[in-house]
Design brief:
- The chain is an alpha+beta fold and 508 residues long.
- The chain folds into three domains: 117 residues, Uridine Diphospho-n-acetylenolpyruvylglucosamine Reductase, domain 2; 198 residues, no CATH class; 113 residues, no CATH class.
- Helices cover 46% and strands 10% of the residues.
- The protein contains 20 helices and twelve strands.
- The strands form four sheets. It has a five-stranded mixed beta sheet. A three-stranded antiparallel beta sheet has the order 4-12-9.
- β6 and β7 form a beta hairpin.
- About 8% of the residues have low confidence.
- The chain binds protoporphyrin IX containing FE.
- Protoporphyrin IX containing FE binds next to α14, α15 and α20.
- It comes from Streptomyces gamaensis.
């Protein structure tokens, strides 16, 4: 249990801080062992990223306080957030309260499990396309091959009528944008990123093209809606939410309150004269599902464009990391691989909406990978007001870090934490305390809206891939898990062998 009495002793500072650099060298050289080891220092530990101090919360019940019970005292904030904001704008991933709660309520219905089942067909199609490509290649980098599949699943789910060549162009732009964002996070020296160097020009151009593509996707979806088409897809769902259309010009039925902080931040991504009513209020501690949005409070086109970018930023990579690292572990664990094969061999030839539910063991394999390698390994927040945690008082403005990686590797919660053991996730095998500390999708009001979507696509991709192929490490392959934003898997290069024991009627 964390200490509760008010303490006058400040929490300990992690050892090894250097003048000016703080713990940056440790964070660059061996970030996961460094962060994972902080729990040995205490339930709250202070670190410095360069000269910027931050408080790392190491105890699961204190994490719960930050993300859930005291969530209203914290906003998204910190170094990662600051560099994602220019890409995601006022999309759900980076929008701040109170706008966040209203946006969340408008979007949530499109992400319920039954709603997501409608996208299973797209997931299965892309999984088959991936499986065929990997089979043709003979040897494949599984992460590199799966990443476009994951992004295509999301793009097709957002707006199913988008032509394939636009999908590809968008993907290329996004890759350049993500590389640029990462460079800005690890080297937060603004003027270096503003110099007219080729890589900065490429980043800026890719960002502008991504925004332009997102804008045109929204315009097309709006035109289809006006012509009376009841299109499928996440974007048409968001358009229907609120039952009315906000306007960017502020002349519609909705008049109001959302502000475009991206324009204030001077990112050059355009200004937003959005005007619509923010009728929903709340404490910000729920998941935003409690109320239906009032009619006439729908998204404006500018907000929809930001949502497209936000979903792509948050949802077009992580499932690929899960699939790649699952394949890596399966190759080293014949027992788990046999159990997985037994399940995927009975997959129906034609996938239906019940596909994911018929794959419980595959889902446990994916869940265990999310425990071992949570793609979002650090979640950052900034205190909006003074707060007390474990009896310590902290001022507004304190940067607070929660690490799913740290919690998931705590031996008190997960015995033998480095061991890949999908059976942990059988009902009744893992304690309630550990389940509460398992937060690959975060927790509280900012919990991942795409959690069921991400789990479904990782499960379907893994099942379809392993049904046809036995994947073995290619000679000389060296798998590396890099603590980037998000966690990255590199070098998962595998030899693709045809599985001969697949039932004949269910082959490729
Ligand atoms: C394995 C896959 C995924 C993982 C591990 C993951 C992880 C996370 C985490 C940890 C957060 C919370 C961040 C915070 O509290 O600061 C988050 C938020 C979010 N994720 Fe995911 N995510 C995944 C897939 C997806 C997908 C597929 C989508 C879109 C379809 C998506 C969209 C979002 C959005 C929009 C948010 C912001 C939610 C809000 O602030 O209300 N994610 N994700």
């Amino acid at each position: 249990m964390p200490s509760a009495a008010t303490s006058h002793q400040p929490p300990p500072t992690a050892p090894g801080a250097l003048p000016l650099l703080g713990h940056s060298l440790r964070l660059v050289r061996d970030p996961l062992p460094f962060v994972g080891g902080l729990r040995e220092q205490g339930e709250l530990v202070r670190i410095r990223v360069g000269t910027r101090p931050a408080l790392v919360v190491c105890h699961p019940s204190l994490v719960h306080e930050v993300l859930v019970t005291q969530a209203h005292r914290f906003e998204k904030g910190g170094i990662i957030f600051e560099h994602l904001k220019p890409v995601s704008g006022n999309g759900l991933f980076t929008v701040e309260e109170p706008d966040h709660l209203r946006h969340r309520r408008l979007m949530q219905p499109a992400f319920t499990k039954p709603a997501i089942a409608a996208y299973t067909q797209i997931m299965a199609e892309e999984a088959h396309r991936l499986s065929e490509a990997v089979g043709r290649a003979g040897t494949a980098d599984i992460k590199a091959a799966t990443r476009p599949a994951v992004a295509r699943i999301l793009l097709r789910s957002i707006f199913p009528t988008m032509p394939p060549e636009r999908v590809l162009h968008f993907l290329r732009c996004l890759d350049t944008v993500f590389a640029g964002v990462f460079a800005r996070i690890v080297l937060p020296v603004d003027f270096l990123h503003e110099l007219p160097l080729p890589r900065n020009v490429r980043y800026q151009r890719a960002l502008e093209q991504s925004w332009a593509t997102a804008t045109s996707i929204v315009a097309e979806a709006r035109a289809a809606q006006r012509s009376g088409a009841h299109g499928a897809g996440l974007l048409p769902e968001f358009m229907r939410a609120g039952a009315g259309v906000g306007t960017d010009a502020g002349t519609g039925a909705a008049a109001g309150a959302d502000t475009d902080r991206r324009a204030q931040a001077g990112t050059g991504a355009g200004s937003n004269a959005d005007a619509d009513t923010n009728t929903n209020t709340g404490t910000g501690t729920g998941t935003g599902t409690g109320k239906n949005p009032a009619p006439g409070t729908g998204f404006t086109d500018t907000q929809l464009r930001d949502q497209v970018m936000s979903l792509l930023l948050a949802g077009s990579e992580n499932a690929a990391t899960v699939v790649a690292l699952a394949c890596h572990h399966l190759a080293h664990d014949p027992r788990v691989e046999r159990l997985l094969h037994a399940e995927v061999d009975s997959l129906p030839a034609t996938p239906d909406a019940g596909l994911v539910a018929s794959l419980p063991y595959t889902a446990r394999v994916a869940t265990e990978i999310l425990r071992l390698y949570p793609p979002v390994w650090c979640i950052d927040r900034r205190a909006q007001e003074n707060f007390t945690l474990a009896g310590h008082r902290f001022p507004a403005g304190t940067d607070v870090i929660v690490s799913p990686y740290l919690l998931h590797h705590d031996p008190e919660l997960f015995p033998d934490p480095e061991h890949f053991l999908p059976e942990r996730w059988e009902p009744g095998r893992t304690s309630e305390r550990a389940r509460a500390a398992f937060i690959p999708f975060g927790a509280g009001n900012r919990k991942c809206i795409g959690d069921a979507f991400g789990m479904a696509e990782a499960t379907v991709l893994l099942a379809v891939l392993t049904r046809s192929w036995r994947l073995r490490p290619a000679p000389g392959a060296r798998v590396r898990v890099l603590a980037r934003a998000p966690l990255a898997a590199r070098g998962v290069v595998m030899r693709v062998e045809k599985r001969t024991e697949v039932p004949a009627d269910r082959g490729q």
